[in-house]
Design brief:
Largest sheet of chain B: none
CATH topology of one domain in chain A: FAD/NAD(P)-binding domain
Oligomer: heterodimer
Order of helices and strands of chain A: EEHEHEHHHEHEEEEHEEEHHEEEHEEH
Number of helices of chain B: 9
Mean pLDDT of chain A: 97
Shape of chain B: elongated
Number of strands of chain A: 17
Strand content of chain B: under 5%
Shape of chain A: globular
CATH architecture of one domain in chain A: 3-Layer(bba) Sandwich
Bound molecules: flavin-adenine dinucleotide
Distance between the termini of chain B: 70 Å
Structural class of chain B: mainly alpha
Order of helices and strands of chain B: HHHHHHHHH
Radius of gyration of chain A: 22 Å
Helix content of chain A: 10-25%
Low-confidence stretches of chain B: none
Low-confidence stretches of chain A: none
Number of helices of chain A: 11
Radius of gyration of chain B: 24 Å
Largest interface: A-B, 73 and 58 residues
CATH class of one domain in chain A: Alpha Beta
Strand content of chain A: 15-25%
Largest sheet of chain A: 8 strands, mixed
Number of strands of chain B: 0
Distance between the termini of chain A: 32 Å
Number of domains of chain B: 1
């Protein structure tokens, strides 16, 4: 096996958190290398450049790695989970595919045990992270509107995405109901921003933004990190983290673009492979010294997986609305976010109001839902659906449960022969009650908005790609994998910065908080450089 | 390439199903999914779906007890209904393959009042809307729990 030269810091994974930590640490002038299994994406290759823009989301731009099956993907056995796994593997990671809805966790989300008597408090709080949220908003470029009574004060650098026809219909209905709503924070640039072009309402935000208006980390953090001297090597799939006789991480074994096995020695290793890739790597790094997997003396590596069950309720109005002619992301409601015991469940959810969808997707989802017939009546019904759709997503917090998790599949392997992850996940009774509550509220809103033909899709089609909790933070080494600033309790030069370190999941899309945490871990490392391994 | 992968019997069955699932309409002045151009697009676009399409077609000929393409109209209609009701993965893949080509045909898109073009680079316009609708919300007290006060 060939051996590369030593680096100070080896980051594995170049997605939301890997990019942020790389950029933040760059100012230390240490030798920093990031290994990423995927490729740089060419924005001219994104689906919205071609006539087959919708078909490709069922092919090489499918959100499921199993279906997409690029050489840069690894398979995931999610047969034992009602929620399927969505991700993207490439420079930018999941931010290439995210819909750019960018709420922060709430202060109460970090204090669930103290406030609501469930799960555990985080070892950090919102207020510690607040400056890192703000820094991340600047770096990613957030569009939104200050003054929202639903969330703590923040100042998005760009104005919000227009309400459009669809947003006006929601807004009026919400005002009649007397319920909270606000234009969503998003990382879609509504003005030119830091070299990025403004959004032109291509509307197909999820499978990559051809305009470059959506902030994926390949066009935000990475160009700056590279200019500051960080090295990023693509098509490098890490198989395992190695350790030395002192029980410290010594580097990583990986397969390079030519399939050659290589060893990369490092003083510090940082994992940023997401809530599935990271436990997979730690479990694949089992050795005589760490027989249950690396950093796993607590037995919690891979456990407590949280995926955010995400029902969606669809309805159709008589007037034509925005359809797919604008970002999907429109507005949020925090009316049901904070715990109210009278609802019959603890914790809460965000309502996420979406615009419609393109002609193919309208037809495919409507046939699947049984509202669009085949045969002669197809055309008449279709004309009542396309561009008449309203859709509300319910971002439910699922609480950590040890039986939900990631293990190594005994049979399935990736192209390099590395054992693939297997997901076991069930939806708890508390979450089910929350989902039904949210569905009933969404139906009430849609009815108030004049919509009919309502349809609630509970989970199967709606896996949101939020992969959290499988290497949780905490002060107690018996109950957590990393400490309050991301360092593994068991291996003092091994850090984790991705979504796996989450203690609970909140009822929001996670990327803003994942990145704020990554910047906070990087800052904690910089503050302690002389005593990092003590 | 994909067309060659279907036997002529399979191709004929698919052609018949496509036209029954999405028939031409004089009322809307649109072709059916069995239109020459649309059908050529369908058979040229199977890609990774080819296996499922063939499975679906095989299931249909089993139901038909032979070639679906040769059935009389009434029998074909009742079998197709049975076939679509099966809800199998391959049936829904077959449906999607037809829909994703049908709803990118220039004539079909025009009849829906849509421009036949990819979303990029032209994009679309999105009206600002009336932001004064937010006034009612601005006036509300804060909804989030401040842990610093609650847990003090
Ligand atoms: C369809 C979709 C829509 C989404 N929408 C939203 C949204 O609107 N808002 C939001 O906040 N979030 C959204 N998300 C979630 C968001 O993408 C993730 O929360 C975020 O990207 C996670 O960041 P991360 O750093 O934990 O991991 P990722 O961004 O997933 O990055 C992990 C990286 O590690 C690499 N990697 C993994 N294993 C290895 C290995 N062994 N060797 C080398 N490299 C490896 C991967 O290739 C990947 O690039 C969405 C996700 C999807 C899939």
């Amino acid at each position: 096996m060939s051996r590369n030269g030593m680096v100070d810091v080896l980051i594995i994974g170049s997605g939301a958190s890997g990019a942020a930590v790389a950029w933040s640490l760059a100012e230390t002038r240490m030798r920093i290398l990031c290994l990423e299994q995927g490729d740089w994406m060419k924005h001219a290759d994104f689906p919205s450049n071609g006539h087959d823009w919708e078909a490709r989301r069922y092919g090489d731009f499918d959100i499921s790695p199993n279906r997409r099956a690029r050489a840069t993907d690894y398979p995931i056995n999610d047969d034992a989970s009602p929620m399927k796994i969505a991700n993207f593997n490439g420079v930018g990671g999941g931010t290439i595919f995210y819909t750019a809805h960018f709420p922060r966790m709430h202060p109460s989300d970090f204090r669930v045990r103290s406030l609501d008597g469930v799960a555990d408090d985080w070892p950090v709080d919102y207020w510690t992270l607040e400056p890192f949220f703000a820094e991340n908003d600047r770096m990613m470029g957030v569009s939104g509107l200050a003054g929202d009574p639903g969330v703590p004060s923040r100042n998005p650098p760009m104005p919000p995405i227009p309400l459009g026809k669809t947003g006006m219909i929601y807004a009026r209905a919400m005002n009649r109901l007397g319920w909270h709503w606000w234009p969503s924070d998003t990382t879609v640039a509504t003005t030119e921003y830091d070299g990025r072009a403004a959004c032109i309402n291509v509307g197909h935000c999820t499978p990559g933004c051809a305009q470059g208006a959506k902030a994926s980390t390949d066009i935000t953090y990475w160009p700056r990190a590279l200019r500051a001297g960080v090295e990023l090597r693509t098509r490098c799939r890490v198989r395992e983290i190695t350790t030395n006789e002192h029980g410290m991480a010594s580097g990583a074994v990986y397969y390079d673009a030519d399939g050659m096995e290589r060893f990369q020695p490092a003083e510090v290793v940082i994992l940023a492979c997401n809530g599935i890739g990271t436990p997979r790597l730690l479990l694949n790094s089992a050795s005589a010294r760490f027989p249950n997997g690396l950093a796993n003396s607590s037995g919690l590596v891979g456990r407590n997986l949280m995926l955010h069950p995400w029902p969606q309720v669809t309805g159709y109005v008589e007037d034509k609305v925005d359809g797919s002619r604008g970002p999907m992301t429109c507005m949020w409601s925090k009316e049901f976010y904070e715990t109210d015991p009278s609802r019959g469940f603890v914790r809460g959810y965000t309502l996420q109001f979406a615009r419609g969808t393109g002609p193919v997707n309208e037809a495919v989802t409507s046939v699947a839902a049984g509202r669009l017939p085949w045969g002669m009546d197809h055309h008449r019904v279709y004309r009542q659906l396309l561009d008449h759709r309203l859709q509300i997503g319910i971002a439910c917090e699922d609480l950590p449960e040890e039986h939900n998790g990631v293990t190594l599949d005994p049979v399935l392997k990736d192209d390099h022969g590395i054992p693939a992850p297997r997901i076991d996940y069930t939806i708890s009774e508390n979450t089910r009650r929350m989902m039904e509550h949210g569905i009933a509220r969404a139906e009430q809103i849609l009815t108030e908005a004049g919509a009919s033909n309502l349809y609630a899709s509970r989970t199967v089609l709606n896996s949101p790609g939020h992969l959290l909790g499988t290497a949780r933070m905490g002060n107690d080494p018996e109950r957590s994998v990393v400490n309050a600033w991301g360092r593994c309790h068991d291996v003092k030069n091994l850090f984790i910065v991705d979504g796996s370190i989450w203690v609970t999941s909140g009822g929001v899309n996670p990327t803003s908080t994942i990145q704020a945490l990554a910047l906070y871990v990087a800052d904690s490392m910089k503050q302690r450089l002389a005593t990092l391994f003590d | 390439m994909s067309e060659a992968a279907l036997s002529s019997a399979e191709s004929q069955s698919l052609h018949r199903i496509a036209g029954m699932m999405i028939p031409a309409s004089a009322e809307y002045d649109i072709p059916g999914a069995d239109d020459r151009l649309i059908f050529a697009d369908i058979v040229g676009s199977f890609g990774r779906d080819l296996g499922d399409v063939r499975t679906a077609l095989a299931a249909l000929s089993t139901l038909a007890g032979g070639s679906f393409a040769d059935l009389d109209e009434a029998r074909a209609a009742s079998l197709l209904e049975q076939f679509l009701a099966s809800g199998s993965t391959s049936t829904s893949v077959l449906g999607r393959v037809i829909l994703q080509c049908y709803y990118r045909d220039d004539r079909v898109l025009r009849s829906l009042g849509l421009e036949s073009r990819p979303p990029f680079p032209k994009g679309h316009t999105l009206e600002q809307g009336d932001w004064s609708l937010l006034d009612a919300v601005r006036a509300r007290p804060k909804l989030w729990r401040d842990d610093r006060k609650v847990l003090r």
